[in-house]
Design a protein that fits this description.
Layout: H1 6-16, H2 23-33, H3 35-42, H4 57-97, H5 102-108, H6 122-151, H7 155-161, H8 169-175, H9 178-187, H10 190-200, H11 212-228, H12 245-255, H13 265-278, H14 283-301, H15 306-312, H16 317-329
Helix pairs in contact: 4-10, 4-11, 4-13, 4-14, 6-7, 6-9, 9-11, 13-14, 13-16, 14-16
Amino acid sequence: MKPKSINSLMKYLRDYKHINISGSSDKLKLSNIGYYHGYKGYRYIFNSQKQINFKNFDELIGIYNFDTKVKALFYPWVMFIETAIKNYVLQSVVEFAKSENFNTIYNEVLDNYKQFENKESKNVACERKNALKSRNELRSWIYGKLATKFKDGHKIANHFLLNDRPVPIWAIFELLTLGEFGHFVKCINSKVRKDISTRIGIRQSDDSGAALTEKFIFILKELRNAIAHNDVVFDTRFRVSKIKENVLSSISNDTLISDVTFKTITDYLIFVVYLLKKFGVSRTELNTLVNEFDKAVTLLKGTIDTSTFNQIIYTNNRSKIRTLKMYISKRP
């Protein structure tokens, strides 16, 4: 099939999608956002069965602009959180292992499988096997990554390996993806995980199993990857993993915001602010983030119909933002 020109695509949108699009201004906008990444990515909410009934092209541009603004707002803070979590984990791991050497840490800290020993149960035996599998996979990932990075001339890998020196754990963290780092935390024993949770400031009554840090990392990973790859985020379609009830309750208990479900981008704002407050970001900076998000929501509301808006930004958004600001104002 012959590829369509921009003019042909505009005609297709008018004739078959009944969207009012015309003139040089709309043509430039469609050229800039792209038909396939732009229109096709923003024509539905969460899944392709929930098509948006656009009447004019400015409505689609309104959603696109909102999506772009949210990514621009979140990105630096998501990177900040990633760095902070890695540093908190690093501090705990090194202190407990009394070493920066990966082999020592592997033996002394990455031994979560031991919690399942001396317990007779088919389910426990299965969990122990899975924990050992995760631990072995982690070691393979790290050794494989070091070999690949060394082969590619990566400066960190080269600095240590060319001098026949073991690569310290902090350098290994620089090479891990956020998903691999999440698996690293998953393999840490409960004593060290509890120390990490306490350092971050997670309510211990909500984190009895000391697993929330790991779960937060995987939530952050999905958001980070979507932003970094310029995927669509406005409707949280990037959310793949099922978010556990104890994650939802821990955030609600701390922020006093009810009905946090991660089905709306507002809940990801709450999640980001929740973690940033744990890491000591100032109230001024947090309020600026929330106010800028609120401005973007207001702009979106002015460009699309109420029914579509309420499917993207739920009707409880105002109360959530209000309570979030109260949470920000509270002393740690």
